[in-house]
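PT: before anyone asks, these are the final sequences, not the draft ones from last week. 747 residues across everything. Please model them as a single complex and drop the result in this thread when it's through.
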Amino acid sequence: MVFAAASLRVALAQAAERWSGDLEVSTAGSHVLRRQIEAGAPADVFIPASFAHAEAASILPLLDRPTELVCNDLVLVVPSESPIHSFEELSGAQRIVLGTPDVPVGEYADVALQRGADAWGARWRERVMHHVVSREIDVRQVLAKVTLGEADAALVYASDARVADVRRIDLPTDVRVQARYPIASVRGANPDGVRFARWLRSDQGLEVLFDHGFEPCAVGDLGAP
Amino acid sequence: MTRTVEAGWTRVLRSLARVGAALLLVLIALPIVSLALTLRVSDLGDAVERGLWQALTLSLTSTTVAAAVLVLLGTPLAWSLARTSSRWARAIEMLVRLPAVTPPAVAGVALLAAFGRQGLFGDSLAELGVALPFSTAAVIIAQVFVAAPFYVLPLQDAFREIDEDMLWTARSLGASPTRVFFRISLPLAMPSLLSGLAIGWARALGEFGATLVFAGNLPGTTQTLPIAIYTAMEGDLGPARAMAIVLLVVAMLLFLVLRSKPLASMLGRSR
Amino acid sequence: MSLELDLTVKQGTLTLEVEVECEGVTAVMGPNGAGKTTLLRACIGAITPERGSIVLGGRTLLDRNTNLPPEDRHIAYVPQGLGLFPHMSALENVVFARRRGSSAQKRAEAGRLLEELEMSHLAERFPRELSGGEQQKVALARAMAADPELLLLDEPLSALDPTAKPRMRRFLAIWLSETGLPALLVTHDPADAVEFADDLLVLEDGRVSQRGTLDDVAVRPATEFVAALTAGLIERRPRTLPPPSVVSEDE
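LR: through. Structure below.
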């Protein structure tokens, strides 16, 4: 049984098909999965959307040492007809939707905005924050607001931007933020689960992930502090 | 001999019924009691930091406005539905029932489809300078939408039960339709009105899915207490528990006040 | 004060066609479904006739250009269930019908009406706490409190048990004659008609099958129903016999 962050749902579904054994994948918010494992759920492999969820004191003892699996760029998405063409132009958007700071995608958004402030000044960031109209609980809600035409811009994962009818704008190099996904086997896991974890880390497994918008992690600290 | 057997069976059935009832009670009470028992005092402090008061205030004010809207608009609707027997009335009744059986998220999408920027009335609203999604007004609209069936339909039944002859008698005694409504129909329907209001209000207080989709999640503007609880769950469970207890207590107090005997008799007896 | 009716009323499968003039107390009788209650309802304005007119004491309540609402017709309606307001005391029920005067004046007048009916001691009781006969009296007091020009009573004695009926019947007869108001009284019971009606109006299947005083109708019934209704009526008349004529010594 694989417990994985919601953003990995589609990619892992395909990985499960390619994988030669039996596999059950359960996806939800990283915090929900973490609580379930802490409460004794029968997970074999844990793949949350940030290292924080794998290294927290309450869960670390239950896992084998987490290693970096793959990364997911944070990107800006806008409706196809939007006049915005760069991350810097975000300060001109009327209605911006982000994730709530309690979820990884929201945390990463705050990091990106802080880096934007470093690059373009505190005033830039103030203007952006002034136009944030909602901080959603999960990425799906964030994306929905853009596809439904209610939001002018949002910060989501690259893997999410692929599936929606929106325009993706990459963050410039000096501002770039990546979500780092750790993978860890749960202590006492099923050997099948351990084998799957190893396969996923191999070139074949990673290929599936890259197909779905994930990227190898860039060198250097690009994740959340 | 037969009598003893019958009595035996009745006793067995009655015991089974009691056990069944007890089981259901336990199922309902256990989670709530557990929630209260796992609470730590520090959790309340954390909850406050995470915006408990803001969310509570927003929930209380928005649901109060929603309740007022329900009474002002829903009472005439219930009355009209009760007094006509045309086919239209039955169709409208079905319509009013819909929000109760619609999944909240679907309701949210529906509200966006009507009042969102791309919605049916998006342009007209924009011309008036009104943008509903992400606003507190949207929170109130979502609350009215989901609570409406619980207020209007029982009240309609109560109005319908009033003896028509009695109302015509009142008219023949010289009372205008308005006087008959406020002195006779409304007082007689008051228990249903208060009961429906309590349930509708509770529904509005707990409203989550439609609000999230239609109004969004921004502390102070659209983050009602249920949404704050769910958001808080992303972090440590403690503050979320504390907020949940606060919400439960508020809902219980609301019920106690609205269903209290003094209130009912004060509003039910005509001067 | 006379009531002139010329109405065609459609109610479900029934078509009521009536053209009559009533004065004094008229008993309206007929088999079930004949249209008696429909007639009363049309008079107060709860039902709108297809066509027709209603004139009460020279005042037009309904015609092609007029359709006065019930509250302006000055016709007090006492339905079969009495229509007492359950959430008000007996006194408050009567006060409701008083339209003019201060609150204190209304209560005083209502109290007086209840006293006339010997109901003062029950003024604060609620309808559910009163017996059938007591409720009846409250309904009558309330009807009078509205200062009506016409009374409509639908089966006034039907809710009473047989032992209470004769007394109430007597009482109602006296009360009706004391108020002096014209009235339409729907009843099933010929004994009622005998007791307080000057006039009889028989409805069958939406039409007037016979009209006249009790004597006329009993002696010359126009239909089988009327005959059955008035059978034995002549013997039951409680009319006081004319004073014995003085036979002069000379005769």
